[in-house]
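Notes from the 1:1 (GR / supervisor)

We went over the backlog. Supervisor wanted to see one worked example end to end before approving the batch request, so GR pasted a single chain during the call. The sequence is below; no edits were made to it. Supervisor asked that the structure be written out right there so they could see what the output format looks like.
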Amino acid sequence: MRKRNQIRANVADKMAACDKIINPLVALPGSPGSGKSTFLVHLPESAAYQQYLNDTDRPAAIVSTLTFNSGMETPGEADALGLRIIYGGMCAMLGTELFPMEWEAFMKKFMAQNITARYAVGMLRRLFGSDRPVLLLVDELSKATNDRAVMTELGTVLNFDGDCDVVVTALSPAYVFDLLTG
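Structure output shown during the call:
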């Protein structure tokens, strides 16, 4: 994770203007129980990430950790990605003491708003700093009701935001690639 804007500029000079392959999406593969979810939860506070922040001139990212696994289920057909991003951001940035609301109560209160992922990322920036990058840590995407639609919505964020990274856990990187190209 070096200075992404410089990297993008160098890559963009060599690529067609409409090429979207330079979007920062990382697939974190591993078998069940290998520690993918634990890694996502602890990444923002890890020594390596803190050293990265010290070595660059980038401000700390606005982090949103979200899952489609236990504890963040939605009823019926809705995956509510935008709500998950906001909820995950509030929990990660404020902690449970300052943001004690449970997912189920949050979802019930705001589900009718139909918030898109792109709007949710913008909302986090308005709350925590417009100059800060956003880091979306997405766990258990394969358990989403419509994983392809969720990946499409994440792709929209990557295409239009400009300073958002996404890490997705998966059993296989081929699964993520299939969702992206599929």
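Supervisor's comment: The first strand starts at residue 25 and ends at 29.
Batch request approved.
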